[in-house]
Amino acid sequence: MARIAGVNIPAQKRVEIGLTYIHGIGPFKAKEICAKLDIPAERRVNELTDDEVLKIRETIDADYRVEGDLRREVAMNIKRLMDLGCYRGLRHRKGLPVRGQRTHTNARTRKGPAKPIAGKKK
Q1: What family is this protein classified in (predicted)?
Q2: Averaged over 3-22, what is the pLDDT?
Q3: Which of 21, 40, 74, 99 has the least C-beta neighbours within 10 A?
Q4: Strands annotated E in 6-109
């Protein structure tokens, strides 16, 4: 099991798939990293040499913003919107959908489970 950017990469998965376990690296960036380092697509994580793991780690540290730094940046962006008091910040503050979705019905993920209203029968 390789440890890259503070994340344990599953050993039995292909390298491209395993890299997507790192927050901030999706399928496209994973393919990009493998192509840059000449790692074949069918190679498994447990087949990587220590040198290849080190190269992957150095490439990710140098060229990509991942894990803690990325999470911190996203949190700071949301906090900035909330401090500004703009519409998107207010939606974040109230825990409602931010991107224009309807809330009359649906939006249960953001609003939480439905709360019964006393006396509303009909």
Answers
A1: Belongs to the universal ribosomal protein uS13 family.
A2: 90
A3: 99
A4: 7-9
